[in-house]
Amino acid sequence: MNVFLTIVLALQMLSALGMIGLILVQHGKGADMGAAFGSGGSGSLFGASGSANFLSRTTAVLAAMFFACTLALAYFGHLRPSNGNSTGSVLESAPVAAPAASVPAPSTTPSLPASGAAQIPTR
Question: What does the pLDDT look like over 30-62, one tens digit per residue?
């Protein structure tokens, strides 16, 4: 099971890096708009609408692979066996720190201001 999770994680990372690279290499649909308004020969305002070249198809395949790997990792991450007394939460299985030194309890008698201190007038 550990080997399978490692393979799925590696596939997810490779697909993410591949998507980043392919997205950065492609030019946007608006890149040809300047050519359409007088500086070159573009067939239409935003190019051919139905065409998908190799880069866009590869990006779509890598995006689907990334999504599938993410779902698989989430599913198998939820299926981790708990150690008996825990529900599987990371916070519940964390070691508990020893309490700090106890602070003395406040006295029950109210403290009165010193005779030279300014007092707030009451109405």
Answer: 766 666 665 554 455 555 555 578 889 999 999
CA angle, corner 15, sides to 3 and 12, nearest 5?
35
Q: Considering the domain boundaries, does residue 69 fall inside one? A: yes
Model pLDDT, residue 89: 64
Range of the domain at 5: 1-25+53-81
Question: Do the Cβ atoms of 55 and 22 come closer than 8 Å?
Answer: yes
Using an 8 Å Cβ cutoff, are 36 and 42 in contact?
yes
User: 74 is written with which tokens?
Assistant: 């989430």
Top-confidence residue, 115 or 57:
57
Number of domains into which the chain is organized: 1
Please state, in angstroms and rounded to a whole number, the distance separating the CA atoms of residues 33 and 49.
Answer: 13
Helix (H, G, I), strand (E, B) or coil at 100: coil
